[in-house]
């Protein structure tokens, strides 16, 4: 009786969170982060447990076959939802229907050849292998695609790993005790469904937390980046500088101002759409030319700033010249192949930057050097100490 009540409450939890996930997905226009697939997983598992409550003792029948198929498809849906959460577009219905058809056929084969005990053992073994694989995948994700969520991925791995271990234990119990071990009043089944109820209560809010964190991270990123080029804006540049100089081992930095030559003529001749392509092209070349960790910012219009961290004056000048040459000898993508468009830039290099508070002064220094370069003919590098 106690296990039946726990299982009934678990069904309620799963179906309620299914509705909640669907409601959240409707508010995430365009990018649903897999919430609608998580809702499907909850629905499949909730229906599986409802069938288990209605089906009575473990045995053979259509309701039991559908129950086992839904039970196995539910974690597959969670995996597909997780892939979508981590921006890995993947189909849902085709793999789910393939698994459902294949596992149903396997159930019929095992039932007709080995009996009901083997069919229930097949489900326990399949779930054990699947959940343990999911736990390992969560650990891998924390080291690869979700390094900013390493702690959360470790928690998921532990929770899912315990579920895999319980299914492995269920397999042993079935093989040693037969179908009587699956009676809802047994101590093992009570323990199993208490843990499932715990997961059904804890994991959905954790998923919502991950979605909220992803949304807030994206908002923070949008606030610190230029929407056209996706390089830093001035706010993001200041935050990056402050983070750099908070380190005790931070070395001096040098600031480069980069200005696209004759940009007004490009806009007037080719239109603003081509002008935007030129700006994006220059931003891409700046990212390719700079070292990893250097800060790249669009100040506005056709003007950029590159801050070369932990370097010398000679190193900053070499970066400036390398950037100038790379832009001069590259073509803007998306323009006519018959008349490829290219551009040049003029760069001004400041004196050493030793604190984030000196940013404005260094911008003024580099700006003065930049205008000397413009007056000297453009497509050149000028340093603040040049005479």
Provide an overview of this structure.
Helix content is 67%, strand content 8%. By secondary structure, the protein is an alpha+beta fold. The chain folds into 2 domains: 2-223; 234-383, Reverse transcriptase/Diguanylate cyclase domain (Alpha-Beta Plaits, 2-Layer Sandwich). A 5-stranded mixed β-sheet has the order 2-3-1-4-5, sandwiched between helices. Helix 1 (2-27) runs parallel beside helix 7 (187-224), helix 3 runs antiparallel to helix 4 and helix 5 packs antiparallel against helix 6 (150-177). The chain is elongated. The mean pLDDT is 90.
Provide a quick synopsis of the model.
With 387 residues, the protein is an alpha+beta fold. It contains twelve helices and five strands. It has a five-stranded mixed β-sheet with strand order 2-3-1-4-5, with helices on both faces.
Q: What are the SSEs and their pairings?
A:
Elements: H1 2-27, H2 35-55, H3 62-85, H4 93-114, H5 116-143, H6 150-177, H7 187-224, H8 234-245, E1 253-260, H9 263-270, H10 272-289, E2 295-300, E3 303-308, H11 313-328, E4 345-353, H12 359-375, E5 381-383
Parallel strand pairs: 4-5
Antiparallel strand pairs: 1-3, 1-4, 2-3
Helix pairs in contact: 1-2, 1-7, 2-3, 3-4, 3-5, 4-5, 5-6, 6-7, 9-10, 10-11
**Computed Rg:** 30 Å
Helix content: 55-70%
Residue fraction in strands: 5-15%
Number of helices: 12
**Total domain count:** 2
Largest sheet: 5 strands, mixed
Spans of at least 5 consecutive residues whose pLDDT stays below 50 are: none
Distance between the termini: 91 Å
Q: Please, what is the average pLDDT?
A: 90
User: What string gives the helices and strands in order?
Assistant: HHHHHHHHEHHEEHEHE
Query: How many DSSP-defined strands?
Result: 5
């Amino acid at each position: 009786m106690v296990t039946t009540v726990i299982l009934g409450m678990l069904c309620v939890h799963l179906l309620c969170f299914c509705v909640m996930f669907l409601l959240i997905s409707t508010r995430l226009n365009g990018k649903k982060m897999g919430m609608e697939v998580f809702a499907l997983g909850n629905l499949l598992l909730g229906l599986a447990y409802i069938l288990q409550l209605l089906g009575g003792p473990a045995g053979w029948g259509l309701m039991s076959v559908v129950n086992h198929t839904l039970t196995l498809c539910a974690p597959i849906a969670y995996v597909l939802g997780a892939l979508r959460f981590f921006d890995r577009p993947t189909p849902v219905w085709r793999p789910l229907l393939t698994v459902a058809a294949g596992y149903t056929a396997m159930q019929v084969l095992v039932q007709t050849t080995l009996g009901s005990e083997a069919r229930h053992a097949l489900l326990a073994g399949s779930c054990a292998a699947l959940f343990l694989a999911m736990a390992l995948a969560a650990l891998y994700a924390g080291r690869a695609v979700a390094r900013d969520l390493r702690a959360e991925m470790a928690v998921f791995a532990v929770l899912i790993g315990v579920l895999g271990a319980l299914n492995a234990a269920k397999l042993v119990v079935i093989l040693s005790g037969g179908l009587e071990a699956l009676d809802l009043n047994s101590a093992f089944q009570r323990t199993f469904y208490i843990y499932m109820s715990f997961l059904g209560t804890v994991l959905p809010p954790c998923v919502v937390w991950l979605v909220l964190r992803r949304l807030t991270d994206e908002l923070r990123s949008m606030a610190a980046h230029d929407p056209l080029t996706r390089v830093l804006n001035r706010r993001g540049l200041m935050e990056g500088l402050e983070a750099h100089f908070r380190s005790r081992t931070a070395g001096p930095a040098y600031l480069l101002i980069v200005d696209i030559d004759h940009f007004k003529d490009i806009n007037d001749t080719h239109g603003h759409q081509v002008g935007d392509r030129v700006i994006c092209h220059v931003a891409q070349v700046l990212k390719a030319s700079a070292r990893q960790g250097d800060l790249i910012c669009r100040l506005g219009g056709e003007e950029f700033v590159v801050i070369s961290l932990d370097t010398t004056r000679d190193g900053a000048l070499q970066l400036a010249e390398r950037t100038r040459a790379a832009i001069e000898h590259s073509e803007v993508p998306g323009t006519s192949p018959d008349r490829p468009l290219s551009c040049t830039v003029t760069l001004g290099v400041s004196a050493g930057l030793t604190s984030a508070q000196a940013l404005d002064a260094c911008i003024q220094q580099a700006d003065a050097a930049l205008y000397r370069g413009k007056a000297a003919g453009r497509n050149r590098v000028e340093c603040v100490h040049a005479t």
